[in-house]
From TrEMBL:
<keyword id="KW-0808">Transferase</keyword>
<keyword id="KW-0547">Nucleotide-binding</keyword>
<keyword id="KW-0418">Kinase</keyword>
<protein>
    <recommendedName>
        <fullName>Sensor-like histidine kinase SenX3</fullName>
        <ecNumber>2.7.13.3</ecNumber>
    </recommendedName>
</protein>
<keyword id="KW-0597">Phosphoprotein</keyword>
<dbReference type="GO" id="GO:0016036">
    <property type="term" value="P:cellular response to phosphate starvation"/>
</dbReference>
<keyword id="KW-0472">Membrane</keyword>
<dbReference type="GO" id="GO:0004721">
    <property type="term" value="F:phosphoprotein phosphatase activity"/>
</dbReference>
<keyword id="KW-0067">ATP-binding</keyword>
<dbReference type="GO" id="GO:0005886">
    <property type="term" value="C:plasma membrane"/>
</dbReference>
<keyword id="KW-0902">Two-component regulatory system</keyword>
<dbReference type="GO" id="GO:0005524">
    <property type="term" value="F:ATP binding"/>
</dbReference>
<feature type="domain" description="Histidine kinase">
    <location>
        <begin position="41"/>
        <end position="271"/>
    </location>
</feature>
<keyword id="KW-1133">Transmembrane helix</keyword>
<dbReference type="GO" id="GO:0000155">
    <property type="term" value="F:phosphorelay sensor kinase activity"/>
</dbReference>
<keyword id="KW-0812">Transmembrane</keyword>
<keyword id="KW-1003">Cell membrane</keyword>
Length: 284
């Protein structure tokens, strides 16, 4: 009697185990496919500027008796070299955000500083296109996280807002604190008192619903030609998504085609005033 009861208990367990193994294999295969795609994409993205550089250097050699042509080709070589440098830098950034634990050296990060830095980073392309950048609400807010990675994430969103907007439009960056839903009155662990929301709004070309599902994938671009023209690599939003998720936050997008987009980061607030005091930069 007892043996039967035992095998009856083991049998469903066994089939569950088999099922788990099968699921595990499918997941392993999926990860392997993603890895293979990534390597293929990287190779393709590297080949494009390297191929261009090779052709251009041949053109320079052929045109050695025409100084004007030489300098024209040299100018284009410089553009391709910059593209290559950007791509390699973004690949390094992506591998960093994927592999390091950003909370290992987490600290309270002043949102005002992040916003000012992001605006600074896009100041040149924005002024070329006469795009005004305005910010508000950041004063006195702190995020619990890695300063460099948070700066990279917000910097990317502002850069995109400027890149994908026509001339003489506006880019707005607004920050606010929102309470964690359903936790009022509950003592929060260090660094999780609430959420800080930073929204980057543009009046640009917008993103269709179909594309909104894919823009956070590595190398996905709505319009590869346009993205390349602005020096884009297709890695920016993948980096933003990784930074947000690894901080225990998220990034979402809202957009109307032809009218503009809003990218919203939600990140954990640095909790107590003691957290903030430890930065030594609390003047608010
Ligand atoms: P890229 O280097 O091409 O900008 P990203 O990963 O930063 O790569 O963005 C992926 C794609 O999402 C872009 O190529 C662009 O098509 C689209 N996109 C990103 N931000 C915006 C925006 N603010 N407005 C419209 N399209 C955007």
């Amino acid at each position: 009697g007892e043996a039967l009861a035992v095998s009856a208990r083991v049998a469903p367990l066994g089939s569950r185990l088999v099922l788990l193994l099968v699921e595990d294999l499918t997941e392993a295969r999926r990860i392997e496919a993603v890895r293979r795609d990534f390597v293929a994409n990287v190779s393709h993205e590297l080949k494009t500027p390297v191929g261009a550089l090779s052709l251009l250097s041949e053109a320079v050699m052929d045109a050695s008796d025409d100084p004007e042509a030489v300098s024209r080709f040299a100018g284009r070589m410089q553009i391709e070299a910059t593209r290559l440098t950007n791509l390699v830098q973004e690949l390094i950034d992506l591998s960093r955000v994927q592999n390091d634990d950003p909370l290992e050296d987490a600290e309270p990060v002043r949102v005002e500083e992040l916003v000012a830095e992001a605006i600074d980073r896009s100041r040149h392309p924005a002024s070329t296109k006469q795009i005004t950048m305005a910010s508000g609400g950041a004063s006195g807010l702190y995020i619990w996280g890695n300063r460099g990675k948070l700066a990279a994430a917000l910097g990317n969103l502002v850069e995109n807002a400027v890149n994908y907007s026509p001339a003489r439009t506006r880019v707005g960056i607004s920050a606010r604190r929102i309470a964690m839903p359903g936790t009022s009155g509950v003592t929060q662990p260090r660094g999780t008192a609430g959420l800080i929301e930073i929204a980057v709004t543009d009046q640009g070309i917008g993103i269709s619903e179909k594309d909104r599902e894919r823009i956070f994938e590595r190398f996905y671009r709505v319009d590869p030609a346009r993205s390349r023209a602005t020096g884009g690599t297709g890695l920016g939003l993948a980096i933003v998504k990784h930074v947000a998720a690894s901080h225990g936050g998220e990034v979402t997008v809202w957009s109307t085609e032809g009218q503009g987009s809003t990218f919203t980061l939600r990140l954990p607030e640095a909790g107590s005033t003691r957290d903030r005091a430890s930065t030594g930069s609390d003047q608010a």
